[in-house]
Here is the input.
Amino acid sequence: MKTLLYLFLFSITGALHAQFVEKPFKKLVENERAAALKRLLKQPLANTGNYDVKFHRLVLNPSLSSRYLSGEVTTYFVPNQSMNTMEFDFNTQMIVNNVVWHNQNLSFSQTNNRLIINFSQARPSGVLDSVKVSYQGTVPNTGLDSYTLTTHGNNVPVLWTLSEPYGARDWWPCKQDLNDKIDSIDVIINYPQTAGGQTMTAVSNGLLMSESINGSTKTSVWQHRYPIAAYLVAFAITNYTKYTVNAGTTQAFPIDNYPYPENLADAQYYAPSHLQVMNYFENTFGPYPFNQEKYGQIQFGWGGGMEHQTATFIVNYERWLVAHELAHQWFGDAVTCGSWHDIWLNEGFATYSEALTREALDGQAAFDYWKDYVVSDIISEPDGSVYVQDTTDVWRIFNGRLSYNKGAMVLNMLRVKLGDNNFFQAIRNYLNNYKFQYALTPDLRQEFEAQSGQNLTEFFNDWIYGEGYPTYTIMVTRIGSGLYDVQVNQISSHPSVGFFEMTLPFKFTDNAGHAYETLLDNTSNGQHFIVNTGFEVTNVFFDPHYDLIKGPTTLNTVLAVNIINDDKIDLFPNPAQSFLKIKNDGISVKKVSFLTINGREFLSIKDHFHNIDVNRLPKGLYVVKIETDKGIYVKKMLKK
Here is the structure.
């Protein structure tokens, strides 16, 4: 949602470059608005858990010269239990004229942004019913940008709505909690045919079924026949120019674009890249979820984009922004986060999907550049979790560093950990299993675990619920011909996580053009790994493609160490069962380390070398590293 252009903006066209928008005044405004929003959003939502919304018909009569709006909303619902009252979220500053049920006027009250309706008799559980609310008023300006009337071009009026997370109640009575999707909606908009000397067009969710003119009033009827969350219902009105691009890798559907006339050429310029992104997402995530209707891209004047279902509102048509908002049709619209605590399921996925288009369409270097920039933003502060604790603060919910960037990079690290096949298949499973439903973070974890067979509890505890990031100190030592000991240590930037488990990418190269890349599963501090490259290494690269969230790394290497292969140091008995002796012929032994073939250090001895107790070692093959005053000896030992 609300992809803010001032969060970050950069594009890659040919040579890599970054363009960042930093405006201190805008930051000041953000802080002032955040304070007001904190006060506003501490107000409770309505108690709406006792009924299931099946259908809304919105009849809206907006002015284009003021914030005045009248309308009526007919709601078809099924009670989940016997109920005498029902509640809607609705701003108390809007005036409810009447509430009608079966041609009867019902009593109602408005308090604390709730509309409470009293039935004359209890409504039985499981029986379809309906109620109609008629209302009017000047839509309040709550600071949420939920209902905006402004101008563009040559002083032409433009009206739009933007309701995420809590703004829908400002302009229509609805159910704003994330526990029930509306099965389908009609949006009927009656508005001035002309304004500012221009012909007006209204756009909303779904398909345009009809347009008609009665005197100076134009009526547009839109229908959407997919489940939808209340905050994704939207409409916009101005003198739009429409153009269409045909899309669909399996099912044909239109991409309908509604730019301002003065921006038509720019929108058309970017259109081919939009089709590329749509095709990539369909091939990667599955068919566009709403392909029986349309995908709309409607220009508005807010500083970014908002993924209204089938009707994205967008400030411009640049590819990176289009990709982010389009991805939301899968992540956020078809599958919606079931709590604002879990907003990263919307925003982290959309941000990472935008990055994936860089990888697919611009190449590895562009993708690496993006990751490097994003990580620098994430580690600019030592704290902060992906999971949102305080959902009364809209600016914490939509925190660019955490919900967007850190969420995206955690997905990238899952991709590294699980591999591409498991990663993308798990995502497709998630989208299929929760299609048109709400989902929570444990639901996503379950899909990744089911597909990969891995237990990801610790990973999610560290990277989703925990705060901060690790900073690594790594030592790479040559211990044989083409054989290297990699020791990994880390410190955490935040006390909520003592140790970050992660799969670590390394790349080893030589001067002849050989390269060896490997992944090391880092599960404990001070862990050793044995890496067999097959050639003599001259350079070691940790995280060569910027895949990890991490602080500045200290990487030390000893690649020309003297490895001694004579028989002055030997092990016996070998295989060993209980005790191991070292023959040293007068050479001073300083330390003996027992490492598994995959590098885990099981035992380290600094004295009493002549009779070493190996009972505690599990059965298997070990690399024994013997550090002496003459150099390092490396031997192999079999534990019976």
The radius of gyration is 30 Å. The mean pLDDT is 91. The first helix runs from residue 24 to 41. The domain at 40-337 is CATH 2.60.40.1730 (Immunoglobulin-like).
